[in-house]
Amino acid sequence: MAKSWRNSSKSKCFLILARLSGEYLTAKQISDFTGTSYNYLTQRLSYWHTWNYIKRKVFSSGHGRPFFVYGIGKGGQDYLKRIPRESMNRLITEINEWLAKHPVK
C-alpha cells in the first residue's frame, strides 16, 4: 500500500481550490466538495491564510452578514507541487468518489 501523504485533508482542500482557480468558495462549499469536516476547516482556514496557502476575501451579497470566501494562494500551489504523483492520484480519486456519493447541490 502506498504511503499516506502528510495531511490529506489539507491537500484535498487545496486541490479543490486549485481546480476552481479564480473562483472563491465558502468553508461550507470546501467541506461539501472534499468531505473534510467543517469544524476542522473553520479551525484551519485562518492559519492557512496567515501562511499564504490560501487567499481570503470578505463577501457580501447585500443580504445578511458578510462572510469569508477562499481561493488558492501561492503557498497552496507550491504545496501541491510537492505532493508525490501517486499520492496526488489517490487524493483525486478520493475526492471524485466522495463527490459521486455526495453530489453537491
Descriptive overview:
With 105 residues, this protein is mainly α. It has one domain: Arc Repressor Mutant, subunit A (Orthogonal Bundle), CATH 1.10.10.10. The chain contains five helices and two strands, in the order αααββαα. It has a two-stranded antiparallel ribbon. A hairpin with a 7-residue loop joins strand 1 and strand 2 (67-72). The longest helix has 17 residues, at 85-101.
How many strands appear in the DSSP assignment? 2
Q: Whole-number average pLDDT? A: 88
Order of helix and strand elements from N to C terminus: HHHEEHH
Helix content: 55-70%
Characteristics of this structure?
single chain; 105 residues; mainly alpha; Arc Repressor Mutant, subunit A; two-stranded antiparallel sheet; 5 helices; 55% helix
Quick structural overview:
The protein has five helices and two strands. The chain is mainly alpha-helical and 105 residues long.
Q: Which secondary structure elements does this structure contain, and how are they paired or packed?
A:
Layout: H1 8-19, H2 27-34, H3 38-50, E1 54-59, E2 67-72, H4 74-81, H5 85-101
Antiparallel strand pairs: 1-2
Helix pairs in contact: 1-2, 1-4, 2-3
